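User: I'm putting together a teaching handout on how sequence relates to shape, and I'd like one worked example. Could you take Aspartate aminotransferase family protein from Streptomyces amritsarensis, show the sequence you're using, and then write out its predicted structure as tokens right after it?

Assistant: Happy to. First the sequence, then the structure tokens directly below it.
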Amino acid sequence: MDRTLAADLARLPDLLDATRRAAAEALATLAERPVVPPAPKPRDPAPLPEEGRGTESALAAFRERWEPRLSASAGPRYLGFVTGGATPAALAGDWLTAAHDQNSNSSMDGAGQDLERETVGWLRELFGLSDAHTGTFVSGATMSNTTGLAIAREWLGERLGVSPADDGAAALGPVRVLSGAPHSSIAKALSFLGLGRSSLVRVPTLPGREAVDPAALDRALADTPGPAVVVANAGTVNTVDFDDLPAIAALRPRRDFWLHTDAAFGAFAALSPDHAHLAAGLDASDSVCVDLHKWLNVPYDSAVQFTRRRDLQARVFQNSAAYLGPLGEHPDLVHLTPENSHRLRALAAWFTLRAYGRQGHREIVERNIAGARALGAALEEDPAFTLLAPVRLNVVCFTLAEDPDPARLTALREAVSAEVFVTPTVHEGTAGLRAAFSNWRTTQADVRRAAEALRTAAREIA
């Protein structure tokens, strides 16, 4: 064994304790550190060491060279990208994920698979899905949407008497994927799956909304030759608008389509009694995307996908090799996603669900919703700002009341980045900003700091 590696092994408990102290110091300062530090002067990449100096030296170099440049994205005022932090339990679970380093794809070493299935069952219950849905962990919403649409592609083949998994997507002929306000990852998934970005057809939305017009969707389906795929939204990125899922499902007796619902963070509305109606009808979906490193507050990268057609899922992703288990009645995870290598992502989710339960995660959701509404109210009262949409759940979409051109909004965003991080957007042709609340640490005090920072910056750039 390499001498330095052997020395680290002998000192492993001390090195883990030093790492724990470094992590604890970083987390203890989250609330007061710049949310996004000022961009430093670029540094030339360091050369690869020929001879290593061990973990202690690497930790010191990281803390000197890289830690000061990292954002406080795990903190309470990082309101970009609908990014959660990591609850204490999720962080513990993630650390143990690395420590145990499981290959959870195979039933020949099946504890990881069993843990994942238990966790998926808890999540299914959390979101109000029935036992007809099975699920697997993937890396994020993009891979969850891609997996769901890959199953939809095979369903189209089933309806047409071909198998895209065997014969290629070209065997389907022209395909139409209908959606009102699809997330950008949908087009990316269609490109990846060989269906093409041009197969995505945007259906008119309701006036002033990002929710699809069910009547327009009905007409679009009537004009579609053969079976189609409908991508519904349970929480759009800009305004957290929800398609009327029951109304879409009601079209099925006379229209032939697969229903995929992108509920990346909107599914969590099901936890709140006052907002659960927004996610009503989610169970009618044929496939569902939920992103867990958003509102479940587990570390990157983690999401789950659900489907009613695990048989088609296994047909798409089956992996035949002598060292892998057979498909069987309960296929190994290696047969269910694009990944052969499957980290035990479920452990962090298992930890936070086991530690805080439905009630604890409901409190996070409802506190974030209250924070978004408070920020929306503060900006609405300030003549410098205008809301681009009502605050329906946990996202505030806003812009400058006067001259909201992208350059001024960029100046505003950069001026407040030490106090609060928000991201640019465009809503109905107007440039704006969005603040997304999903972090378990965020309080009303953070809302007040964010509002004050935005007000001050707006006066300075006026």
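A couple of points you could highlight for students: The first strand starts at residue 134 and ends at 138. The chain has a mean pLDDT of 96.
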